[in-house]
Amino acid sequence: MPTPMEEINNALEVLSLPKLITRSDIKKQYRFLAKKNHPDQGGDAVKMEQINRAYKLLMKYIEEFRYTFDEDEVNKQFPGAEHADRFKL
Q1: 72: CATH
Q2: In the chain, where do the E strands start and end?
Q3: Which spans in 15-78 are helix H?
Q4: Residue 19 — very low, low, confident or very high, per pLDDT cuts 50/70/90?
């Protein structure tokens, strides 16, 4: 199971975004990629699903927590994620 930081990094990679972005940047990049990859426009349905999931994750994080995807900031918002990993064998 991926950590919150891994999920966010994957979402940023899917949308080709840097870690320091605005809500507007996320929306603009999502719209650009959605037009390019939408199945009705000859794009790939699987890729479009990845784009949708990445967009939803990043928007949820930005609305509920912070405007930066820095690893320290993410770990502050999800403190239990790394704590549980310390006890896995």
Answers
A1: 1.10.287.110
A2: none
A3: 23-37, 45-64, 71-77
A4: confident
Question: 41-88 pLDDT, tens per residue?
Answer: 888 999 999 999 999 999 988 876 655 566 666 666 665 555 555 555
Q: Quick one: which of 21, 88, 7 has its CA closest to 54?
A: 7
CA distance 25 to 3: 24
Residue numbers of the domain that contains 42: 4-76
Average the pLDDT over 14-33 and give the result.
Answer: 91
How many structural domains is the chain composed of? 1
Say if 49 falls within a structural domain.
yes
Scored b (16 or more CB within 10 A) or e, 7-43 reads bbbebbebbebeeebeeeebeebbeebeeebeeeeeb
Q: Tell me the whole-structure pTM to 2 decimals.
A: 0.70
SS3 88: coil
Q: How far is CA 11 from the centre of its chain?
A: 3
